[in-house]
Design goal:
With 259 residues, this protein is an alpha+beta fold. The chain has two domains: 4-68, lambda repressor-like DNA-binding domains (434 Repressor (Amino-terminal Domain), Orthogonal Bundle), CATH 1.10.260; 83-154 and 195-258, 2-Layer Sandwich (Beta-Lactamase). Helix content is 45%, strand content 13%. It has helices at residues 4-14, 19-26, 30-38, 45-54, 59-68, 86-99, 138-143, 155-172, 176-185, 229-233, 244-258; strands at residues 104-107, 112-116, 136-137, 205-209, 212-221, 235-241. The protein has a six-stranded antiparallel β-sheet. The termini are far apart. InterPro entries: Cro/C1-type_HTH, Lambda_DNA-bd_dom_sf, MLTR_LBD.
Length: 259
């Protein structure tokens, strides 16, 4: 079992910081950082959290550091659909509704969909029922041949983009289950990803449904200063039309739904 000093050293190396870098950022001496990492000094709970904050350690792992250091966890993990996070859930629901007629959804740290707006529903028509059983994994939904994969025109490019994004996420916050998903579904293929046109503001996902192409790009929104593990690990994925034709499709579909 690792000591708290060994775990802090792992996080420091993961962030590619020297002991001096961390010491300056945390306003402590480099000698003290060295003593903590080697186990010759037992850090207080506040010191553990001060160092963890400078290392951008996820809240879940900060709790682990505290436990290993002999202290009680500081951060709760409440369900998003529970009373304790009602205000945050309502805020997210408003964001999702406000984004209609364009699709938006909320994913957790393993890319499971925990909330979505009505504009997502048409994309799920024809998806194999077992892929829609909770928890619905967004990566599996998008890349499984029984999911959205047959409708994604630039599938190789999307797969490469997802692989890069999840690889960066795992570098920041390792997770065995997400790593397994990445290995299963995002292994590099022999096909080469295409190059986006210079006019694109972001690399789009290009869907084809019944002869119509929809071009979408996405943005990611997270909570700025979460104190709950659940909020620390969720993100809102919002999709926008990448051209006028795609925008017109969503606007017409929304008008038809309201008629």
């Amino acid at each position: 079992m690792h000591t708290v000093g060994e775990l802090l050293r792992q996080w420091r190396r993961r962030r590619r910081l020297s002991q001096l870098d961390l010491a300056i950022a945390a306003d402590v001496s480099a000698r003290h950082v060295s003593l903590v990492e080697t186990g010759r000094s037992n850090p207080s709970a506040d010191m553990i959290l001060r160092l963890a904050d400078q290392l951008d350690v996820p809240l879940r792992e900060r709790n682990r550091l505290l436990l290993v250091g002999g202290f009680a966890p500081r951060y709760a993990e409440r369900p998003l659909d529970g009373d304790g996070l009602a205000a945050a859930r309502d805020a997210v629901a408003r964001v999702l509704r406000a984004h209609e007629p364009y699709p938006a959804l909320v994913i957790d740290r393993r890319w499971n969909i925990v909330m979505s707006n009505r504009a997502v529903d048409p994309f799920l028509a024809g998806v194999a029922p077992d892929l829609l059983r909770p928890p619905i994994n967004m990566v599996r939904l998008g890349l499984d041949p029984r999911g959205l994969a047959p409708h994604i025109v630039n599938l190789a490019e999307v797969r490469a983009l997802l692989r890069g994004r999840i690889t960066r996420q795992l570098a920041v916050a390792p997770d065995p289950e997400l790593a397994a998903i990445c290995e299963e579904l995002l292994a590099p293929g022999s096909e080469e990803a295409g190059h986006p046109a210079e006019s694109e503001i972001a690399v789009p996902m290009i869907f084809r449904f019944g002869g119509r192409e929809l071009r979408l790009f996405s943005t990611t929104t997270t909570f700025g200063t979460p104190m709950d593990i659940t909020l620390d690990e969720v993100a809102v994925e919002s999709y926008y039309p990448a051209d006028a034709e795609s925008a017109a499709h969503f606007t017409a579909s929304d008008a038809h739904a309201e008629a």
